[in-house]
Amino acid sequence: MEKGESTSTSYSDTNGSNEPDHDFECNICFELAQDPIVTLCGHLFCWPCLYRWLHHHSHSQECPVCKALVQDDKLVPLYGRGKNQTDPRTKRYPGMRIPNRPAGQRPETASPPPQQPQNDAASNFFNYGIGLMGGFMPMATTRIGNFSFGVGGLLPSLFNFQFHGFPDAALYGTAPGYPFGGYHNGFRGVPGGNNEPTAPGGGHPSDAALKNILIVVGICVFFFLLL
Amino acid sequence: MTSSSSPSRKALSKIACNRLQKELSEWQVNPPTGFKHKVTDNLQKWIIEVTGAPGTLYANETYKLQVDFPEHYPMESPQATFLISFFGIYIFVIFVPPAPLHPHIYSNGHICLDILYDSWSPAMTVSSVCISILSMLSSSPEKQRPADNDRYVKNCKNGRSPKETRWWFHDDKA
Ligand SMILES: [Zn+2]
Ligand SMILES: [Zn+2]
């Protein structure tokens, strides 16, 4: 009896009563899977264990757990962070040559996603704001993509938008016979960003005052939207 | 030479040993219902007591199973090592006579259950085999020996070729 007890305790020290995690144990040797490989039916094995069973002991090519057909070219290796090169388990089946574990089948590299605006809250907010204001969201979006600063960058772009937009609006007002061209110019001015040449310059003395007013209006709209 | 004697067998491989220790400790935590295994220091041979399930023909009857493990358990396929010169068949679970009267159990204790032979899979365990044996007992419609019992047992004693005493798995497929 003494003997029995001592053996039973020495046996149970590996897992004992606290339920161990069996999720990554090979279904054949019950150890943590080495050179892990998964069948299409989802059952996990050590590659040497599965190979040895299928090619040296079994009469059929079936999964030991669920009897599903197992095809060598449909096995999926699991690559964790462990060393992939060494294969200590193979040596534990002495006198048996176990071929290399099947390699993973790698689909072609995923194509890079289309150029996207920054996804932070500030640019989302900004897109929303511009969309509300002038319906220029697509242009504003591409612009924002080039800005790496957050809210701080919003004011200058807002400013530019107003700055370039206003003279054209004036043109629109003063030359009713040519509305579309003027509007079009202004539209084009927005993505131009800080390009001074597209600005009509200081031909009108009232421009500076109007600019200032529009800056204030723009800032007001901006903070209104912020709230 | 009787079926319950252990012919000379190779010791368990390291992998077999590790796996049996795991099975044993899991058994101790969660033994299958109706089975009792007294742990000894012999990992390679388990003697397991089985009690017939209530409400069946074998209710309250107790029998002994002897489980012998081959060197390369759980890989070893039915036709592998143990007793090969004797039966030509791999047997690792038998009833220690007197065996229960059952259409699939021979009087020498051999059990005609496909998972012990051709349908063995290394994902099975002693515990799952025990459960299958108990369910085989429980589903028995009548207490009797297999029709070929005398011939089979005589062939075993004479050490006849396994081809002549080839197992056939009666009607379990249904
Ligand atoms: Zn394994
Ligand atoms: Zn499977």
UniProtKB/TrEMBL annotation, chain A:
Single GO biological process annotation from the record: protein ubiquitination
Entry's Gene Ontology cellular component terms: endoplasmic reticulum membrane
Transmembrane segments: 208-226
Pathway(s) of this molecule: Protein modification; protein ubiquitination
GO molecular-function terms, A-Z: ubiquitin protein ligase activity; ubiquitin-like protein conjugating enzyme binding; zinc ion binding
Residues spanning the signal sequence: none
Region (Disordered): 79-119
InterPro entries assigned: RNF5/RNF185-like (IPR045103), Znf_RING (IPR001841), Znf_RING/FYVE/PHD (IPR013083), Znf_RING_CS (IPR017907)
Keyword hit for Transmembrane: yes
Bilayer topology term: Single-pass type IV membrane protein
Localization terms from the record: Endomembrane system; Endoplasmic reticulum membrane
UniProt-listed Enzyme Commission number(s): 2.3.2.27
Catalytic activity: S-ubiquitinyl-[E2 ubiquitin-conjugating enzyme]-L-cysteine + [acceptor protein]-L-lysine = [E2 ubiquitin-conjugating enzyme]-L-cysteine + N(6)-ubiquitinyl-[acceptor protein]-L-lysine
Pfam family of the protein (one): zf-C3HC4_2
Enzyme class label: transferase
Domain (RING-type) ranges: 26-67
Keyword tags: Endoplasmic reticulum, Membrane, Metal-binding, Transferase, Transmembrane, Transmembrane helix, Ubl conjugation pathway, Zinc, Zinc-finger
PANTHER family (UniProt xref): E3 UBIQUITIN-PROTEIN LIGASE RNF5-RELATED
Domain description: The RING-type zinc finger domain is responsible for E3 ligase activity.
Function summary: E3 ubiquitin-protein ligase.
Protein name: E3 ubiquitin-protein ligase RMA
Native species: Brassica napus (Rape)
Classification lineage: Eukaryota, Viridiplantae, Streptophyta, Embryophyta, Tracheophyta
Automatic annotation (TrEMBL), chain B:
Organism: Brassica napus
GO molecular function annotations of the record: ATP binding; ubiquitin conjugating enzyme activity
Protein name: E2 ubiquitin-conjugating enzyme
Residue stretches spanning the membrane: 80-99, 119-137
Any Gene Ontology biological process: protein polyubiquitination
Broad EC category: transferase
Active site as annotated: 112
One annotated Gene Ontology cellular component of this protein: nucleus
InterPro entries linked: Ub_conjugating_enzyme, UBC, UBQ-conjugating_AS, UBQ-conjugating_enzyme/RWD
Job of this protein: Accepts the ubiquitin from the E1 complex and catalyzes its covalent attachment to other proteins.
Family: Belongs to the ubiquitin-conjugating enzyme family.
Source domain of life: Eukaryota
All residue ranges annotated as the UBC core domain in the record: 15-174
Cross-referenced CDD domains: UBCc_UBE2W
Catalytic activity, EC: 2.3.2.23
Keywords associated with the record: ATP-binding, Membrane, Nucleotide-binding, Transferase, Transmembrane, Transmembrane helix, Ubl conjugation pathway
